[in-house]
Amino acid sequence: MTIQVTGYRISTYCLVLFHVLKELGIPYELVQPSNFEDIKTPEYLATKHPFGKIPSLNDDGFQLYETRAIARYLVNKYQGTKTSTVLIPSDAQKAALVDQFISVEASYYTQPITKIVGQLVFAKRRGNEPDLKIVTENREELEKTLDVYEKLLEGKDYLTGEFSLADILHIPYTYYAISAGEGDLWNKRPNVSRWWKNISERECWKDIVTEYTLTDIFK
Predict the structure, then answer these.
(1) 171-to-56, 64, 98, 137 alpha-carbon distances in Å
(2) 203-211 vs 12-24: helix axis angle to the nearest 10?
(3) Listed residue (116, 145, 149, 121) closest to 133, CA to CA
(4) Which stretches within the chain are classed as H helix?
(5) Which of 27, 61, 157, 167 has the fewest CB atoms within 10 Å, measured from its CB?
(6) CA dihedral angle for residue 188, residue 194, residue 195, residue 200, rounded to 10 degrees
């Protein structure tokens, strides 16, 4: 049975899973609910995600929710079976560094960038004016985070030194923020800029941008 991802093609969290699956060489099917009310139904809450969120994964009857948990599961089960790409190393210390940067991403990077993208991309898509106060406040927080990243990335192409799941988790929100006009936050920091170039030019990510016509979001 083909892996099913329930969610939306433009969801940043779904995009993470698409990228992981493509890097691992695993085919999948995207199942898109017809509207947001569908993910709040009793059936969805009971069988897909008890908090009424996306994405949700079905792997031959095994149901799992929460993006980072799903990503780790996919790597643990499928890494090395179809491609040679390593997203979580088998070495305990190297794997710990990946987990460390996943925690950093969730705690310090995604929190402010989520609010920026929420205003500059998704509020606009709903026909609302972005709240620039929220954008400014969270831009300041993201600046602080990126200053730390600039130091952490000194002499490295990737967060742990090698491409990993930690890098993938940063890509969709960063892509949206840069496409919405926030690129200077990354471009003015040489190490951060180099890192972004390396991770955003992965062939699997470029395939996703094309397949799901992500550039159309900004037209």
Answers:
(1) 19, 22, 15, 22
(2) 130
(3) 116
(4) 12-24, 42-47, 67-78, 92-104, 110-117, 124-125, 132-152, 165-168, 171-177, 184-187, 190-200, 203-211
(5) 61
(6) 100
